[in-house]
Amino acid sequence: MKKFLGLLLLVSFFVLVGCNPTTTKVKVYFNLNYEGAPEAESVLVEKGTKVTKPADPVRDGYDFKGWFKDPAGTEEFSFDTTVEGKTTLYAKWEEVVLDLTPVVTRVLYHWVPTAIDANVTAAVDLKGADAVTVKFNGTALEEYLDYEYADGVLTIFGTYLDEEGFDLGSYTFKVVTEFGEADFTIEIVANASLGSSIPKEIVKGLDMTQIPSYQPTQVIAGAPELMITEVGVDMGLYSYIEVFNNTNAPYNLKNHRIVFGNLEKQEKLTSLGLFEEPLGMGAGFFIYQDYVIPPLSSAVIWLVASFPWSQVANSELHDGTTGNAIVEAGTVQSNIFGDKPENLSIAKFRALYGLSDDVLVFPIRTQACLVNGTSSGTADGLGAAPIKGSGSFFTGVNSSTASRGFQIQKFDLDKKIPVTDMEGVSYYKYDVNVVNREEDVYVDGVLDKSKISIFGGRETINALYARKVYYDENDQIVGYATGAKAIDMYNADKEYYLQMYEEVVIPLSTALIYPNVVDGAAVKWGEMRSLEYTIPEAGSTIMRYIPLEGMLATYQELYQGTDLLNQLKLMGLAPEVPAISGNADIEVPISNAYPKDYLTQGYNTIGRVIVYNFEQDE
Description:
Blueprint: H1 2-18, E1 25-31, E2 41-46, E3 62-68, E4 87-95, E5 103-108, E6 110-111, E7 120-125, E8 133-136, E9 139-140, E10 147-150, E11 153-156, H2 158-164, E12 169-177, E13 180-188, E14 200-205, E15 226-232, E16 238-245, E17 251-252, E18 256-262, H3 269-272, E19 284-287, E20 292-293, E21 298-304, E22 309-316, E23 322-328, H4 346-353, E24 361-365, E25 369-370, E26 404-411, E27 417-418, E28 427-435, H5 438-441, E29 442-443, E30 446-447, E31 463-471, E32 477-480, H6 495-504, E33 505-512, E34 516-518, E35 521-523, E36 530-534, E37 544-545, H7 552-558, H8 564-571, E38 584-589
Parallel strand pairs: 1-4, 6-13, 21-24, 25-31
Antiparallel strand pairs: 1-2, 3-4, 5-7, 7-11, 8-9, 8-12, 10-11, 12-13, 14-38, 15-16, 15-36, 16-21, 17-20, 18-19, 18-26, 22-23, 26-33, 27-28, 28-31, 29-30, 31-32, 34-35, 36-37
């Protein structure tokens, strides 16, 4: 400042020497205007001319706001005006108020539930503060247990976030020092791919989420009225098939049976296209509920793969007699439906697969308790109801096992079959149903045996029976097929069981299970994987499986040959679709601290259909 004013004085001197001695000069004083300031500098200028604005002065702790005509700084001086006489200009100052509140810069601020080894971090400038505290909703977190601050980085631990049970959403923490506080907002997201601050990389894999949903608006000509579009494999208790109602009317699944069977054991496969023998006879699902699918819509049929009951012989039954008593497995509460946290529920199924509430989910349990009308038979065509051994239970779909498949069958229980050789009998119909249903014999999660009907000295749950019912010409029941002519649901090779299949069972939709093939060997696909199907060839009920890109040739080589089963497996193959590929780009977190189970959502299309489920190209 002094050098600048000195330069002005020197210039003024030369001007004075070189000018007319009669010219009037005036002084302009620059008063720094604060206590203890240096003496005001001044310059000489020609009266009626402008004074040059000097460089802005500097004062520690203050901002210079300009030159003013008065010490109070109410009227600012304009250097565009001329000076007419002695003038004093006053500097105006504004004290700089230092902002010492901490400055938070978010670094890694997304977190995924259960990622206890993943933390959230922020760079924090404490502005000279001695300590920092982190608060949420007014409550201080515990340092070193819930968070730490070191080398300018604040870390809130994933263990704290997990223990507090934060739901998805945004949460603002307060970073507090003795000088003030600042916000640190974190985002809790469903998976790491949704968190832009989580370091990620690209891997190759199957991602069906990249394929858009599709909703047919008209009936698919030539396709079955009920189509299997997807099968969930290797999922045990949570196995499922997804079906599409290919009609313009609501479709009721009542009196349909889903059979999971071994293709090699189906006697009626060649002649009628039927799966008459569920695997071990314990892998059949007769639907007795009114499960209705809206027109041109889908539903998920949850194949509950557990049967947590057995029978113990020579036990006291609830009616005081001796026979085979029903006994609950120790895990029964986690395998029955109810309101307890450990019970099964549709909500749990939806949560597992990420389904919205508008997705129809129809649970049905396998019937491993089967009525044999020829054993301890009764006059009403029923009989003993033994439970199959646990080795015959449906426990899910092992996708690596050869020659397995699902078939949805419709039982025409209204069909009247004429009788000409029995006096007083005009026709018969079949009655197929489930008795001692679990929803009827359990009250608030507790088995009430008094509600169980005993058949052939056996207590049962979810017992499947079938019987012939004879009618007269007035449509009145006059009797039932009994003894040797009764139907045995326990054994698939019995005459009248097979006759029932020939007379009233209609195959609607069949889906063969295709394994993953690695180095020529069949292996499992793994959990959460689904197999996608499209419409059959004309005149067939066998839905065609859509192979992963590059695998069609593998299957064609695997199933080469002229035997019937191989021909069926080849018939059940659709062309490849490039979009259904195991080579899609998938964004995943680099760190293994984040759960990657969300990737399995890309392994299936449960809850929606895609256009490829309705492709008609050969």
